[in-house]
Amino acid sequence: MAVAENLKNQTTGFGSPDSDLTTEEMRAIVESALADIPAGAKVLAIIADKTRDDNTPILFPIAAGLLRERRAAKFDALVAQGTHPPMSDADKLAKIGASRFSDIPLLGSVFDHHWDDPEQLATIGTLAADEVDELTGGLLTTEVPLTVNRHVIRYDHILIFGGTVPHEVAGFAGGAKYFFPGIAGPELTNATHWLGACATIERIIGRVETPTRRMIEAAADHIPANVISFTSVITRDDEDRQRTHALFAGDCRLALRRAAEVSRMVHIKYTGRKYKCVVALLDEHYEDLWVGGKASYKLGGVIEDGGELIIFAPQLKAISDTHGDAIERFGGYAPLEVVRERVEHDPELRSNLCVAAHLAHVSFAGRRLDSGEFVSRYRITLASQVDADTCRRVNLNYLDPGAFRVADYENDPNSLIVERAGRDLYLVEPQDE
């Protein structure tokens, strides 16, 4: 099992929407969570990549120092980048809070994850078809092999470092999601993303108990090591100061759920109405639309039918460094109803369900015209380094970023301007779990 018997149903930590944890308070939480790590232990840390903003730069050096004090034998890290490109050494150092790798006690290697290289993966089990059927409420009904980065099976203890925010596939990021799809092979990565799309983004995002969450947690039960999860809730103020509202450590399931209760109070904003136009000033962490699509995921719920989402992202260089060609080849962004039809008729797309899910997620939701045709509920206009022809090929409108003026929308009562778009989820009103 993924969690040792002495950690089941246990977490340590605290926090609230009004809290602002100090480094010493976080150190005490980490120390408590690592108290049972024995001398000679082989420990692997799983960390997020640069597209996720969290307090790993604070927690990672603390954990490393405590592991040295406990005489751990080995300490390495693995980046849970999913299908994202690898980070540079500079980005890795920033993520672990160091100027040099040698600054971190005990640290050996920081491994990249190669999700599409079978030689880098190990099979740790299978979710049988009847189990998948039950977990997903019948949305998926096929057997799913469980493959993960091969490094996972070489360690006694695994530490997960990451934050939680509302998420379009799992409901909330964090916890078992760092295994699946964070360091997973293509099988469950494809399955979970397509499951999230089929369950519909409006029924998934901002909810804890989702079909996807059940599936990834069932898969994580096959991880052979003792797992300790450090799940934080953070925000940043206008001066870019990071604030830690909460930190929970221990059982992977419980730490995530305790953190999500705080996250839903600090990361979900309620507008009380929908808008004809939403202007998303995209968060600077997102350099392509594969991750920058969060602007649509998290704002679509407050856009009127027939309205417009304008994504202003001068830093955004591509639709996707990894999947851009596939996004174009499979027809670009479209409502789920249209993407389902493409999947049904295209065997290649059926083998790339992660991309299929992305096409539907960015489109967010569909509406049926009188003719019976399904179209996107709102249009998306992209103002970035992506050229007009590329935008057209993936069903986006183009706006010259040099011509964009946020002041054009500031006094319009039918427009909503969202800074650092993609971080917080916007809803008209609270939703039922």
Q: Explain this structure to me?
A:
31% of the residues lie in helices and 26% in strands. The chain is α/β, with parallel strands linked by helices and 433 residues long. It folds into two domains: 5-266, Rossmann fold (3-Layer(aba) Sandwich); 270-427, LarA, C-terminal domain (2-enoyl-CoA Hydratase, Chain A, domain 1), CATH 3.90.226. Helix 1 (23-33) crosses helix 2 and helix 12 (336-345) packs antiparallel against helix 14.
Please give the structural blueprint:
Layout: E1 11-15, H1 23-33, E2 42-48, H2 56-69, E3 74-80, H3 89-96, E4 107-111, E5 121-127, H4 129-135, E6 144-149, E7 157-163, E8 166-167, E9 171-172, H5 186-199, H6 201-204, H7 211-220, E10 226-236, E11 242-250, H8 252-266, E12 268-270, E13 275-282, H9 289-292, H10 294-299, E14 303-313, H11 324-329, H12 336-345, H13 347-350, H14 353-363, E15 366-368, E16 374-376, E17 379-384, H15 388-393, E18 397-398, H16 407-410, E19 415-421, E20 425-427
Helix pairs in contact: 1-2, 5-7, 5-14, 12-14
